[in-house]
Amino acid sequence: MIVMLIKKYLPFIFVTVLLFTAGLAMKFTTVDVEAKAVLSGEVSWTINKGETVTEGTELIRIRTLTGEITAARAPMKGKVIEVMVQPGDEVKRGAVVAKMTE
User: Fold this and answer.
1) Which of 26, 66, 68, 71 would be 62's cystine partner, CB 3.0–4.6 Å?
2) Cα separation of 38 and 21, whole Å?
3) For 62, how many CA atoms within 13 A lie in the half-sphere containing its CB?
């Protein structure tokens, strides 16, 4: 009797265990996000690697004819894991300037 129940519900048990395992894997997996420059110019300031930021935090500034302006902001709350530009570098609009993780 027990063997028949196990055979009957084995596919359900298998799928349940599989979904549970996938859920655990997703919980412990981090997502890296690229922050891109929205303006072109010479970098005048960058955030430091390892800093924790909230969405909208300034990541880099560039020099313009009228002064400095923010060229990239954090797209999400997280931690800066890499900064690809340094003060004095030229960046173009759309270039990846930093990487973040949740």
Assistant:
1) 71
2) 39
3) 18
Tell me the one-letter amino acid at 48: N
- Name 70's Cβ contacts closer than 8 Å, sequence gap at least 6: 58, 60, 61
User: Per-residue pLDDT tens for 32-86?
Assistant: 899 999 999 999 999 999 999 999 999 999 998 889 999 999 999 999 999 999 9
DSSP-derived pairing of the beta strands 32-36 and 96-101: antiparallel
Rounded to the nearest angstrom, the gap between the alpha carbon of residue 79 and the centroid of all alpha carbons in its chain is: 8
State how far the alpha carbon of 67 is from the alpha carbons of 21, 25, 28, in Å: 52, 47, 43
Q: Could you tell me which CATH class the domain 32-101 is placed in?
A: mainly beta
Residue 80: strand pairing partners: 100
Backbone Cα Rg of the chain: 23
Q: Which residue intervals of the chain are DSSP H helices?
A: 2-27
